Amino acid sequence: MVPISMKEYLRKVEGSKAKKAEVKASIQAAVKDKKKGVTCIICDQPIWAIGAGTMDQNMCFTCMTGEADSPEDYEIDTVCP
Q1: pTM higher than 0.85 for the full model?
Q2: Range of the domain at 63
């Protein structure tokens, strides 16, 4: 995973200020869940905060995307391994 700050990630999100605020709130909730140890509903691995917040599903990167490798994908820097 590539660490990214919330501010930097939100710059990449398309849409209105209201849409960005909604995305930010969802991802912040997922970050809190990840820090509390919430795991993927399928495989019990740590959740992917950006994906979980965006898709509203507590899932890891692999279960959400079907990809095993994530060297070019973002994760919020405060929860990166």
Answers
A1: yes
A2: 2-79
